[in-house]
Amino acid sequence: MSDRNFDGLRDVQLWRTFLAAYRHGSVSAAARALGVAQSSVTTQLQALEKIVGSPLFERHARGIRPTAGADELAGRIAGPLDALAEAVGARPDAPAVPVRVGGASEFLAAVAIPALAPLVADGMLMTAMAGLADELLDRLRNGELDVVVSAVRPRGRTLPAMPLFDEEFALVASPRRGIHPSAELRASDLDGHPLLAYAHDLPILRRFWRHSFGIRLERKAALVASDLRALAAAAVAGAGVTVLPTYLISQELADGRLVDLRPSEDPPINTVFLVRRPGPVTPAVALIERALREATKAL
Hints:
Blueprint: H1 12-24, H2 27-34, H3 38-52, E1 57-60, E2 63-66, H4 68-87, E3 99-103, H5 105-121, E4 126-130, H6 133-141, E5 147-150, E6 161-173, E7 196-197, H7 203-213, E8 223-224, H8 228-236, E9 242-245, H9 250-255, E10 259-260, E11 269-276, H10 283-296
Parallel strand pairs: 3-4, 3-5, 7-8
Antiparallel strand pairs: 1-2, 5-11, 6-9, 6-10, 6-11
C-alpha cells in the first residue's frame, strides 16, 4: 500500500464501502445498501484508491466495473469482513438492492423464476433480466448483473462459468400434422410441412438437421418468432414443425399435444452454463446458484 502508516484497521468503514460498491456494481446501489449519501461513497472509494495506490474501479455509463486489483482485494477481505459482521450481529449481505439474474426469457419463465420464488418469499430482492446470451454476458462483465444462465460459454477467464445442465432438443409437431413419428424419419418426410424458427437463419433447426439428418437445411421458415414459447404454441396449434428444448415442452409431449417426430438416444444437446461476476461469491448469489442447480437436476 502507498500509505505505510495505514494498518488496515484504522477505518473499517472504507473496506465496507469498497465491498458494497464491488458487490452491487454501482455507487448509488452501494450508498442505498449502506444508508449513506452517494458523495460519501465516492469520497471513501477515492480515499481507498489513494491508500492502495491504484484504481479500484472503472467508471462507465451504467455503474462501476472492478479492476483486476479490486477482484484480488475483494477476494482477500470479503471473508473476514463478513465474518466480523456476523460476529457482531450485522447482516453482511442484506438485500438492500436486488440480486440481478439474467437468462433467456423462456428459461427464466419455465425454470429460474419458479425455482427462485422461495428465496423472494423469504425476503430476497431480485431483478430478472431476459436477453440474448452475448448481451447478458456483456452486462455481467460491466457489473450490471450478478448471475447469468447462458447457452454460450464466455470467452477467456474473466467470468467464472460452470456447466449447469445439458438441454436436449426434439423435432416436434402437433399430431394433427399427420407425420408418423419414427427414429428413421428422413428430412424429405417433412417436405410440405411449414418450419417454425427462432430466427431467420434457423440456428436451432439447422443444428438439428446437421446432427440428426447429416445434411444442411436449405429451406426457409414459414414463421419466425424470437420466443421459444411462441414456437411451442404455434406447433401445438398445428402451424408446422419446429425444434425445441425438451424441458420447455415436457407437458405438451406428455399429454400428446406435441409429438417427438424423431425419437433418438442421441439427441442434439447444448450445455448451459451458470456464470457469475468475478470475485467472492456473496451469500445471496450462493443461494441462487444452489436453487438453480437443484431445479435443473431433472432437466
